[in-house]
Amino acid sequence: MLTTRGFAREGVTNAICFQSVPELAVQVRRGTVSAVDVVEAHLGRIEARNERTNAFVKVYGEDALAAARKADNARRKGEELGQLHGLPVAVKDNYAVAGKPFTNGSVPLSGNVAEEDDLTVRQLREAGAIVIGKTNTPEFATKGVTDNDLFGATGTPFDPTRTAGGSSGGSAAAAGDGLAPIGLGTDGGGSLRIPASACGVFGMKPSFGRVPIPLRPDGFTHHTPMRGRGALTRTVEGAATVLDVLSGSHPSDPFAVETGETDFVAATRRPISDLTIAYSVDLGGTFPVDERVRRRFHKAVDAFKSGPATFVEVEPEMPRSRKAMYHCWKTGFSVVLAEALENMREDGTDLLGDHRKELDDHNVADAEAAKELGAVEYRRSDVVRTEVFEAFQSLFAEYDLLLLPTMAVPPFEHGKWGPEEIEGEPVDPILEWTLTWLFNLTGHPAASVPAGVTREGLPVGMQVVGPRFADERVLAASGAFERIEPWYDAYDERH
Prior knowledge:
about 500 residues, alpha+beta, Amidase signature (AS) enzymes, eleven-stranded mixed beta sheet, two-stranded antiparallel sheet, 15 helices, 17 strands
């Protein structure tokens, strides 16, 4: 059992752990609750409940308390405080945290220690956030489930025998179960949105370029597929607060763009009466979708229709078959994995050579296939990608937003990458059971909002997708849906 070494205190209630990010931030800044109390409350809940979901793989209790005491002193001295002052953050274990294990969920890297903070971690610290621990991720963040040979599987708080989704499943489970107000994640094919759906929280992949990603030695590798970084939180405004902190240009990222006067938190409260929102349960028959998800999605849309926006059901015609589009995404993702392993080999860690048997078989197979891929064939996949981009650009020329399910199935039991068929139609268990990866080909902003639960009590997510750099519009619609169909009461002491 992972332990926080006795930080649970008698009399500390779970009320602190289920307040939203903005509410908690205001209380800490005003001094109505101390950062120490906030950290201790979350450490106590981790100690009591982490064994249930296996969200955290490392907890830094002493470090977090020391940072909390420093945060309280800063407030008492009247120092300038950041937007996330005193708030704990759960960091996915594919981010570097200085002096801490940096495993990427891989057995051969169990002894790897980061020398310095990743830029994103540094940005959060500068805003006053406190790193409380590392959360679970599948090996190299390559699965839609969170499971690895180093730390095991992570389950959704709604039913820990079922997947938390992936690859940011540890952070999503931590947010959903009140173990941390903020879970930090990444998204290369749905890794923020899939676990958001599976754990009943909010997660958003911003427009590509909105949040800087300082990858090295190849600073251009996050372009194919287009990856994003963001937060998993229990409210829309919580994730928007983190996006306000992280967004903007940075000299280390050649794709990062300046945000300007954008206020993402304010965007969550904007009216949407002038919006025309398209919705489709399967993108014109492109995806097989489990009947339980279909039912829940349509109920969510029906509820949303009670609001002031205009809604139109659409059956968009996609330019290629699902298999062809999925192959395009998977090709790019496999090349990224192969490149990462090659970079590690050049740095002296030959995982495919010295540690091949310790790696996930699927990762070995994908990396080897990518190494055999011809340069022209690889570049030609961008033709498919361009067609997909144009299809959605055409849709957004007519409609302001698009709604569709996040996962085609509810969270399933541990022990597999994913389903091999949906409603009788075969799918690749790696990720073809989601409707997320299309937007990693195109770079459009896409969020997953909780859309309710199935009759079995399993959470379902609804994607809100917008035109490039219409992140504020996505947040406005997500916030409006949250007000119409609040999911806040799904998080109480029973979960």
